[in-house]
Every structure is written in C-alpha cells, then in structure tokens.
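Researcher: Here's my situation. A collaborator sent me these components and asked whether they could plausibly form a single complex. I don't have experimental data yet, so a predicted model of the whole assembly would be a useful starting point for our discussion.
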Amino acid sequence: MDIRKFSLPEIIFGHGSIRYAGSYALQLGGKRVFLVSDQGLERSGWVDRLLAVLEAAGLETIYFDQVYSNPRDIHIEAGAELYRESQADVILALGGGSPMDTAKGIAALAGCGGRIHDYEGANRISRPLPPLILLPSTAGSGSDVSQFAIITDTARRVKMSIISRSLTPNVSIIDPDLLDTVDDHLLITSAVDALAHAVESYLSPLAHALTETQALTAIRLITRHLPRALRSRDPDDMEQLSLASTAAGISFSNASLGACHAIAHSLGGFFDTPHGEVHPVVLPHVMRFNLPACTARMADIGEVILGGRLATDAATATAGIAWLEEFFANLGAASRLSHIIPHTDDFAQICHMAAQDACLLTNPRPATAADLLAICTEAW
Amino acid sequence: MTPSLMDIVGPEYTKLGFFRDVQDKMAQLHAYTEELERKKQEIQSILDGIVDVLAVITPDLCIQYVNPVFFRYFDDPNPGGKRCHEVFRGSAEPCAGCPVQTTLATGRPDRLTYLDRRGERTIHFELVSAPIRDEHGNTRAVLLTKRDITLEKEYQAKYYQAEKMATIGLLAAGVAHEINNPLASISGFAEALRRRLPQLRQRLGETDPLVQDFNEYIGIISEECARCRDIVLGLLSFSRQRAYAGQRLDLVQLVRDTLKILAHKIKEAPGVQLIQDLSPTAVPVCGDPSELKQVLVNLVLNAMDAVLPQGTITVRAHAHGKDAFLIVEDTGHGIAPEHMDKLFLPFFSTKTQGHSIGIGLSICYGIIQQHGGEITVCSEPGQGATFRVRLPLEHPTSGENL
C-alpha cells in the first residue's frame, strides 16, 4: 500500500458545546477574536449567543459578515484586510460551508500575505496560519474537519480548490443544537452534500481503512436519519446527522472526492449554483459512470444503503444507486440540471473547468472533459 | 499546476505551527535583553563615573532623575518628582535667571554660577543646562549639570591675589628706589645744614631765635627723613623677590621667645587673655628668626587691637604633614568681607588715621612669601579672625638636637 494520511483537527462534539468557544480561543493565545458568520445566523440568534460566550471569556470580538454562498476572492481579501487592521489573533467561524471557507481563506492571507489565487492547488501554504476554530451550523459541508477551502475566482468564474494541511482548523466545535434553526431546504442540501462526500471519498483511490469506516458510517446515518429528522426534528436524529457530516468530512478530507464535486464546483463558479443543490442531480449519474471501475466498492455502498447484498456486486451497486435516486426524489430535491441552471450554452466550458478540478484526480474512473460533458448532458 | 494524487496525500506536509518562529523570537529577545542589559550597565558606569551632580528636569520643573553624586551634596533622599527649585535652592518659586527655563524656552544650552550657603560650608556651583530632545527635535526635558567649583574659585582667587601682590611689589620697589635718591639728598643736605649750625651761631649769637628755629627745623627734617627711610625699607622688604637662605630653627621656641617680649604689652590690657597651644615636640623650620618674630609680633598686636577691651588670643604652633603651622586666633570684631582681599596690601589699614601706616601685614606677607610659605586669613564679621601661617617643615636629620 502506498503512503496514506489521516489528519484531523481537535473535535469537540455535543449539545451545548458552543459554550467552550471562548475558553478554546483563550487557550490558543487569543485576546481579540475575528468572528466570521453570516446574516442568516445573525437572524437565528446564534451570532449573539456566541458573542456572549466570547465576552464572558473576556475576549474582544471583531465581527465580519461579508459572507455569501460560494465565497469569493474579493470578500476574502476584504476580510483579511479587516483582520490585519483589527490586530486580531484568533479566527472563529460560525456557519455552513461558506463562512467556514471564508474564514480559511482569511487565515491563509493573514498568515502568508499575497492573494488567495497564490494558494490554489495543493500544499502551497508555506507559513503558519492564525489559530482557527470552526463551529459548523449545518450538517454539513465538512469544512470544519477538512483541509479544503473552496473559493470562487471572480475574474475567471471558477471555484479554486485550496488544499493544505494548515487549513485544517485547530478545533472544530460541533454543537447539534445549531441545527435547530436550519430550514428543511438547507437541512436537505447539506445532508446530501455530506452523503456525496461519503460516497465519493469511499470510492477514491486514496481511501483506506481509517477513512472507509467513516464514509460508510456517514452513508448509513444519513440514509436512516435524514427523513426522520425532517419529519420530527428529533434532537437524536439531528445529532446523528451532525455525526454523519463530521464522519463524511473526516473521510473526504483524507481521501478526497470525485467527479461529482468537480462538476458541482464548476457549476457553482459559473452560475453561482448552491453547492448542495447539484449533488442530488449529478451524484447518481456520476456513480453510474464510475460503476465499471469500482463495482465491488460501489456494492459496499449499496449494501449499507439496502441493508444487505443482492446476487452480484453489480446488482447490489446498481440497486443502491436507484435507491438513492428515489431517496432524493422523496426529499423533494431537484432531479434534473435544467431545474437548477438556466441553460446548457456553457456546458463545454464548465466541463473543461471541471476537468481541471483537483477533485477529479481521485475519481475512481479517469474522466475527460468530454466524459463530464456527457454526464452533464445526461443529467440535463 | 494541477496537483497529483500524491500532492493531495501530501505525506511531507503537516499543519504548520509557530514553534520555530517562537523559538527564534525568544532567542532573539533573549539576545536583545542581554545586549540591552550590557548597554544599560555601560551607560550606568559612564553616569557613575561623572563626578558632577546630574539631574534631568521635566518642562514643569520636576526632577525626573538624579545621579548618585546628588546625594553627596543634597540631603533629600527622594528628589524624584519634586520641583527642582525646592530641592536645589529650598525656594517655593522658580529661581530668577534659571538656566533650565532658558533652555526650555530657547532649546539652547545655558549656564550660571551661584553660591549655595545652605549647608555648613558655602559651595560654589556652576550650572549647565542642556536640552534633551525627543525624536522630533523638540526639547522634552533638560539635563542639568551642577559642578562644584568652590576649590577652583578659591585657587583662582589666590592666583589673582598673588598676581596683584606681585604687581604691587614691583610698584612698591620702583617707588621705594625712586624715593630713596631724593630722600638721600634731603637727608644729606639736612646733615650739611646741621654742620653749618656752629657757623650760624658764631655770626648771629647763641640766643638768636633764628638759630633756634634752624636747629629745630633741621632736627624735624632729619627725623622725617628717617621715618621715610623706614617706610621705604619696609616696602623693599615686601617686594624682595630673592630666594631666601635662612637658618634652621624651632618654631615652638621662636614663639615662646616672642611671646616673652610681648608679655608686658599684654599685661597692660587686663581684659585680654593669651592662650598658648604649642606642639610638645620641636617644629623645625628654616628661616630668618628676626623676620619670623616680626611676623608674629605683628599678628599678635593686630589681634590685641581687635579684641580690646576684652577677649582671647590663641597662638598655636604645630606640625601637620609636611608643613608647620603658626596660627593666631582672636575673638575680636572680625574682618569685613569687602576688606578680605585688600588685607595684605601695603598702606591698607582699617585703623583710624595716624594709628598705623598699614605696612604691617604687607611686610608679613612679603616675609612669609620669601620663606616659601603662605599666610591666609579667615574671618566672619563679629566672629573674630584666624591668621594662619604655613611654612615648609624642615626634616631634622637624625641625632640633631634643636
């Protein structure tokens, strides 16, 4: 077996764990906290709750809320500027993937200077970053445990993958209570994103025993608990979804992803399509494309979903994909690309971009831009 | 540009920490601290090596810093934060002509000398104020240096006095020589007239008033000539600049002999008490006994004049280090400060006219000078006076008895 890695932040998990945010910031040497969040979380009251925690710990807080879905380089640069001016010393992010990736981008610029484009790709961050504490409010993007930050390059209209061990936060505080204020749409898109993380990272050639268990656990938990969570918002279901998102994050952070994420990044960069809306549409198509290259492993996923195996691996795998399609349909998620993007004029360019994406490296079946175009056209 | 699978695994990378940076910074700080400490020590040694009083004064005239020398001159154990005029001069108001204020106003150094009479000894200070500037070149404080120039001033005064004396000596010698010739003529012709007197008597008769007058007038001319000759001799002795080869003598014995001579004079004044404080052992000096006696007589008679009708005169003679000292103290009316520097000048006298011609102390001065010594006086009005004669001590060769 080749060299593999398994890197994680410190993870604090549990109801009410948000109250430790202050003491962690202090222990990381913080006096002035740079807090990144967004208006949705302000409305839900969680920002005020966190500010109270930080104040009780005797910390000053500088609040930055220029966070948008698919975070952009310009916002990152504005944040880094404010970080430098305010002489903060710890970065906290509260929210979904967008605030967390914004915080990571700000940390990269605060630690290394330059522009965010300088760090596109893998292992290009060569200096220590300010301490990072992430509090995910969705289940979820997995950004709170991953070494990835996905930032949109406004000039090129592409999503840049920035991959570096130093982007792994110091601490991830996962408090399932934060899911209480999440609406159905966000609950679904973030859970499906986590499911896509689990599926793609399980099929990655970089997967190994430590990541595989995380991935399969995440798949099992999401398929079992998401419908129940939507019906009753039972705290236990919410907690299982949080765990699933964290497990999926651990898996993809170490084994990386595949073509589905490459396409989602590309569409997000081009049309600003919400990341979570692309997966229910594209994931089954990508799985069918990959099936010949990894039938046995696809069958493992099918077995977890179906709760048992069929006669052959191929049958089990195919049944699993079909089950997922039905699962997405039952959730009321979009099932065709035409539901979420305006036209197909730019598919060629979008797929050309997707073929450059770092996630495509770990797709189990090598895919060209033409292959991706075929998938997108099929999903239209 | 596009990363490979191995790039994503990145086995050679880890989350970077600041440990190395922090260590380097700590080492740097440590080195800086040591360097600073060394510099501080160096500056402190420089400051400690300065023998003048140093003080840093803020624009509101408060003392910010003083060096250790400060405590040698001033009693205040905690001058920091107090107003400089209170600490240095004991006055509630800023001093007139204060160089610190001039420096604050102009940004240029300034100086001033003043006498500090607050302690038991009067100290002559020279102040120099220099600006301490901030990074913009504005005066943010003043560095005040106070030098004790008491000794310097004393030496300077002595030097001027010596110069003056030497000049006056030359003048006196010149005048004495110039007067000597006409005086000799007057005296000679007066003698010639005296020798003509018998002829005058023959021609006019013994009882003629004219003969009487001539006789009397010639006598007066001769006497006055003799008085002039004495004055001229005195002047010459004051200004005599030749090296003096005297004989070895015991100062204590000389004092005893002289005081015997003066005993009857002192007895005449019952209110005057004479105390002798003489070294039990011989104090050998080299000199002319009669001249030294003349000095002592002069000093004792002056003291008598000062203490009358009653008081005490103390005469001391003793050896100290390489010098012999002859000291005459009195409890008399003392000497006015404005007379102090004129005391040893010829013809200077505080006594009522006719009582003295003021040649005494100037002759004493001349004699002691020729003996390689010095004569000094200290006195406060109403507190008596002390005349101190210092002479070089002769070291007796072994086995020689004086």
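Model: Some features of this prediction you could bring to your collaborator: Chain A touches chain B through 25 residues (CB under 8 Å). Chain A has a mean pLDDT of 94.
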